[in-house]
Amino acid sequence: MIPDIAIGSKVCDKYTGSCGRVLSITNDEVTLEPTIIKRGARGEYLEVTDPPIRAQKANLEPNHIRRYEELPSDHELLFHFGIEEAGSPGAVLGEATARATPCSCFTYKGKDLCWSKGVVGLLTQDQQGLYCVAGKTYKAQPALTERYTRFAEAAEAAHKKIESMPKGMPRLEAWLSAMGEELSKRAIEV
Predict the structure, then answer these.
(1) Using only C-alpha atoms, what is the Rg of the chain?
(2) How far is CA 145 from CA 42, 56, 89, 109, in A?
(3) What contacts 30, CB < 8 A, 6 or more positions away?
(4) Which of 54, 62, 139, 147 is the most buried (most CB within 10 A)?
(5) Contact 158, 57 (CB under 8 A)
(6) Closest CA to 17 of 70, 71, 73
(7) 158 touches 178 (CB < 8 A)
């Protein structure tokens, strides 16, 4: 199914991974201005655009059209679970950005799970008090909840495989290996 897109829409091409604003639409092609999020010298996030590229409309599927800043990617979810396995909170890269930006949240098993610009990984409950001062935004996001549930099930199965290992770096490496196996079993590509 070819999605409805318009000039200015932010989309992602499922084959190249390029995400950005649509500059033009011609027959079966769109021209994208890819945008990359980079960390600036002072820890702030910067949007850097690359030269425009062409993408086929057929390569844009509804589940690949998203605003990249609104939903954590599969890579970010894997990183979150890795941080959680290591016993660490979300990594704050831009404290001022994190405090000034409202958190995006959803509820999973009665627990608020939130993320914010300026923080890599989901925020712990304590971090939510510090970095969600600009507010929390809840949106019905069934696709995200379903993705998170699948990742949580894989992380739980991976954790069971290594629970007898002592804490430390070898345990985290073993967990990552087990997590890779579990994600493969569930056909989750990261």
Answers:
(1) 18
(2) 33, 29, 20, 10
(3) 5, 11, 22, 23, 24, 54, 55, 56, 57, 60
(4) 147
(5) no
(6) 73
(7) yes
Question: pLDDT tens, 32-64?
Answer: 777 665 555 665 555 566 678 788 888 776 444
Which alpha helices (DSSP H) does the chain contain, by range?
74-85, 95-100, 125-131, 142-162, 169-185
Distance CA 93, CA 90 (A): 9
- Decide if 113 contacts 132 (C-beta within 8 A): no
CB atoms within 10 A of CB 109: 8
- For the chain, how far is it from start to end, CA to CA, in angstroms? 23
CA 157 to chain centre: 21
Q: Evaluate whether 55 touches 29 at the Cβ level (below 8 Å).
A: yes
Q: DSSP letter for 54, please.
A: E
pLDDT of residue 114: 87
Whether the model clears a pTM of 0.85, i.e. scores above it, the answer is no
Cβ within 8 Å of residue 110, ≥6 positions away: none
Q: Measured between alpha carbons, how far is 11 from 132 in angstroms, rounded to an integer?
A: 27
